């Protein structure tokens, strides 16, 4: 028998609502396996900061590190809340965890499930995965500003790109591409403007490509990539890109695949030295929080990524199938609560087991 120690960070806004459903599904899918999920909940986020002034303490981090994996809902208060100005929960907590736990791969799959309505008129078959770098780029941030408060204020934010950091995420992307049917990899960047895009990213892709002769490699500027996300998303198989471009592209990917409520992600440390963290792509959605309006599907599909990462591939597939079933049966006229969607997916999972 196997025990999995899971750190659960429900977070803010809709985070706790969608995480409750994800944990429900996790319990249901592992019930018949010889797997015990031992959860510990960490109350982190904007609400906690407002209460205690803490964002992510050393003790939090040390304790979270003792787990096999992390499930996170969403963090962040209402954008513009002046009380959170100095806290910056997103940077201090979310990036704090991604950086401290060396989550250098941010894996964001995009599939249009059968029966799901895409805002695109004729999207065709869409099934790609974005491998977003997770520990570098402009997210490292120096927040540099000089002459603040004068008309000559200068602000700059350095994009940090190391050969080590680029190579490891590019290598991971090639491995993913190699394991897929189409074996296509697209580097998305901005080589026409950003010098390091060509001198570092493209160069490293070219070098690593020599080790993967079966993978077909191409390149798109990020602006052009957004065109094809809308006009021909079926052309993509695996995309590799930097932290900021990957952030923007994956909200777009979520939108074309039927909505942000369906998009899952994994912040992965492939070495296994640190626990990986799974979370929906969306944020805390203060506009709909506390009303059971959030779609928990993204959080539930993040559980599938988590199970996959832990080697429980059969359980992962069962979660995916149950979600696909639920999506195929979804009615566009009846609106279900967050818990009703979670319950429906649990029922589909359980029915499958009995069959
Ligand atoms: P958001 O993703 O929270 O919301 C964008 C829009 O999508 C909103 O209209 C929201 O109602 C809708 N939406 C999001 N998730 C949904 C779901 N599951 N079901 C139905 N609708 C959903 O993005 P935002 O408004 O830019 O950010 C809100 C807060 O969340 C900010 O503080 C932001 O920094 C934070 N944020 C956190 C994460 C994270 O924790 N991983 C990710 C993104 C944003
Ligand atoms: C995401 C979010 C985060 C990011 C923010 C909240 C720091 O938008 O997970 O996509 O930019 O990575
Ligand atoms: Mn984002």
From TrEMBL:
Binding site for Mg(2+): 223, 247, 251
Pathway(s) annotated for this protein in UniProt: Amino-acid biosynthesis; L-leucine biosynthesis; L-leucine from 3-methyl-2-oxobutanoate: step 3/4
A single MF term (Gene Ontology): NAD binding
Reaction(s) this enzyme catalyzes, per UniProt: (2R,3S)-3-isopropylmalate + NAD(+) = 4-methyl-2-oxopentanoate + CO2 + NADH
GO terms classed as biological process: L-leucine biosynthetic process
Pfam families xref list: Iso_dh
Span of domain Isopropylmalate dehydrogenase-like: 5-345
Superkingdom assignment: Bacteria
Cofactor annotation comment: Binds 1 Mg(2+) or Mn(2+) ion per subunit.
EC numbers: 1.1.1.85
Keyword Metal-binding: yes
UniProt KW Membrane keyword: no
Subcellular location(s) of the protein: Cytoplasm
Cofactor(s) required, per the database record: Mg(2+); Mn(2+)
Sites where the protein binds substrate: 98, 108, 132, 223
GO cellular component: cytoplasm
Assembly and binders: Homodimer.
Function: Catalyzes the oxidation of 3-carboxy-2-hydroxy-4-methylpentanoate (3-isopropylmalate) to 3-carboxy-4-methyl-2-oxopentanoate. The product decarboxylates to 4-methyl-2 oxopentanoate.
Protein name in UniProt: 3-isopropylmalate dehydrogenase
Organism this protein belongs to: Cryobacterium levicorallinum
């Amino acid at each position: 028998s196997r025990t999995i120690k899971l750190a659960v960070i429900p977070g803010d806004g809709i985070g706790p609502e969608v995480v409750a459903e994800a944990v429900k599904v996790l319990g249901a899918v592992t019930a018949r396996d010889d797997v015990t999920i031992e959860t510990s909940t960490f109350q982190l986020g904007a609400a906690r900061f407002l209460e205690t002034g803490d964002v992510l303490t050393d003790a939090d981090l040390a304790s979270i590190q003792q787990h096999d994996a992390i499930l996170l809902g969403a963090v962040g208060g209402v954008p513009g809340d002046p009380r959170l100005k100095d806290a910056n929960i997103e940077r201090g907590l979310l990036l704090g965890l991604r950086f401290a736990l060396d989550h250098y791969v941010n894996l964001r799959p995009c599939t249009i499930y059968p029966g799901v309505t895409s805002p695109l008129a004729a999207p065709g078959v869409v099934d790609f995965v974005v491998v977003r770098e997770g520990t570098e780029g402009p997210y490292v941030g120096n927040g540099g500003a000089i002459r603040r408060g004068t008309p000559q204020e200068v602000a700059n934010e350095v994009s940090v790109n190391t050969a080590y950091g680029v190579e490891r995420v590019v290598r991971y992307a090639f491995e993913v591409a190699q394991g897929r049917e189409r074996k296509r990899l697209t580097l998305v960047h901005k080589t026409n403007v950003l010098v390091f895009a060509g001198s570092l990213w493209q160069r490293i892709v070219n070098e690593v490509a020599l080790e993967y002769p079966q993978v077909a490699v191409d390149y798109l500027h990020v602006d052009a990539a957004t065109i094809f996300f809308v006009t021909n998303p079926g052309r993509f198989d695996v995309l590799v890109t930097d932290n900021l471009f990957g952030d923007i592209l994956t909200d777009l990917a979520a939108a074309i695949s039927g909505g942000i409520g369906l998009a899952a992600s994994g912040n992965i440390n492939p070495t296994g030295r640190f626990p990986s963290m799974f979370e929906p792509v969306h944020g805390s959605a203060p506009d709909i929080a506390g009303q059971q309006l959030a779609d928990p599907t993204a959080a539930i599909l993040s559980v599938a990524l988590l199970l996959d990462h832990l080697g429980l591939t059969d359980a992962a597939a069962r979660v995916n199938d149950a979600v696909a079933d639920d999506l195929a049966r979804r009615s566009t006229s009846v609106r279900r609560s967050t818990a009703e969607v979670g319950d429906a997916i649990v029922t589909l999972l359980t029915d499958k087991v009995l069959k």
